[in-house]
């Protein structure tokens, strides 16, 4: 493992040896010195989402149910479920980028992808630190020049292992800054990290971090979706981190797709 980040929760510190194994059985048996499991301690109890809900912090559910047609917005925070995550028909966990204008994400969250550039600006339009962002193009409607974190700290690769996905932040702030774009560019997709012991889907459901659509420039880049669990991905569950569509004037300016992973 190339790089270890500071953990936001102390219980993650001793989990790495089991996480390297990458098996569902290992996940299920993971315990740390304080007795808290990989999937959290369930301290936020059983919760049923019956309306659009935005999280204020990392959540540690016992069992979590999202009712039909409802959306849980992680808001840049992680979702832990020590028991079962149930997604009913049409339920969503979503950290999609907004449509234009692009905007930077809040510090202290998991960050996001680069936002789309302003059609009035060319490749000199700057984009702030971005997770999974890409450099600017040479024509209007494309994203501006990005200033991403170092390769060891930024980009979708940060989330390619369970350990990295769960750490998700570093104290120096290298991972917490989202991309800011031109006034007409779509926002970049955010980051969704779900660690649930079991995942059940009744019908079709979605976990997404799609880029926002533009109204006069480039679509926002797709974000990151990582699910860590002991179960196989249900047939009806879609993971999506698609780039946002560009405006009608610039049909070829779709944002770059992001990264999704189902780790079990």
Question: Secondary structure elements and their pairing?
Answer:
Layout: H1 16-21, H2 24-29, E1 47-49, E2 53-54, E3 59-61, E4 64-66, E5 71-73, E6 79-87, E7 92-94, E8 126-127, E9 145-146, H3 162-167, E10 191-201, E11 205-208, E12 224-228, E13 237-240, E14 259-263
Parallel strand pairs: 1-4, 2-5, 3-6, 4-6, 5-7, 6-10, 7-11, 8-9, 10-12, 11-13, 12-14
Give structural attributes.
264 residues, 3 helices, mainly beta, five-stranded parallel sheet, seven-stranded parallel sheet
The overall average pLDDT, rounded, is 66
> What's the main sheet like?
7 strands, parallel
Helix percent band: under 10%
Poorly predicted spans: 1-28, 30-35, 102-156, 169-183
Question: Pairing-aware structural class of the strands and helices?
Answer: mainly beta
What quaternary form is this?
A: single chain
Radius of gyration: 18 Å
Strand content: 15-25%
Query: How many domains in all?
Result: 1
How many β-strand runs?
Answer: 14
Q: Tell me the overall shape.
A: elongated
Number of helices: 3
Q: What does this molecule look like?
A:
- This protein is mostly beta strands.
- It has one domain (26-264).
- 7% of the residues lie in helices and 22% in strands.
- The protein is built from three helices and 14 strands.
- The strands form three sheets. Strands 1, 3, 4, 6, 10, 12 and 14 form a seven-stranded parallel beta sheet that branches.
- The longest helix has 6 residues, at 16-21.
- The protein is elongated.
């Amino acid at each position: 493992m190339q790089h270890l980040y500071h953990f936001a929760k102390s219980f993650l510190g001793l989990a790495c040896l089991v996480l390297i194994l990458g098996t569902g059985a290992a996940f299920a048996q993971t315990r740390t010195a304080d007795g808290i499991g990989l999937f959290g301690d369930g301290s936020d109890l059983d919760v049923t989402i019956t309306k659009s809900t935005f999280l204020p912090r990392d959540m540690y559910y016992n069992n979590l149910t999202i009712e039909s047609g409802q959306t849980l917005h992680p808001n840049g925070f992680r979702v832990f479920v020590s028991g079962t995550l149930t997604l009913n028909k049409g339920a969503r966990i979503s950290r999609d980028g907004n449509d234009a204008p692009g905007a930077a994400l809040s510090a202290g969250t998991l960050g996001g992808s680069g936002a789309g550039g302003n059609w009035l600006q060319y490749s000199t339009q700057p984009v702030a630190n971005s997770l999974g962002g890409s450099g600017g193009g040479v024509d209007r409607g494309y994203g501006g020049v990005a200033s991403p974190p170092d390769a060891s700290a930024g980009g979708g690769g940060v989330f390619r292992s369970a350990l990295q996905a769960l750490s998700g932040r570093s104290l120096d702030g290298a991972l917490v800054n989202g991309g800011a774009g031109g006034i007409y560019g779509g926002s970049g997709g955010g980051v969704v990290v779900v660690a649930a012991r079991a995942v059940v889907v009744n019908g079709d459901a979605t976990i997404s971090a799609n880029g926002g659509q533009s109204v006069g420039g480039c679509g926002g880049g797709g974000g990151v979706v990582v699910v860590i669990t002991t179960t196989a991905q249900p047939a009806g569950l879609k993971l999506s981190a698609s780039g946002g569509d560009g405006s009608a004037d610039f049909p070829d300016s779709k944002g770059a797709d992001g990264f999704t992973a189902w780790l079990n």
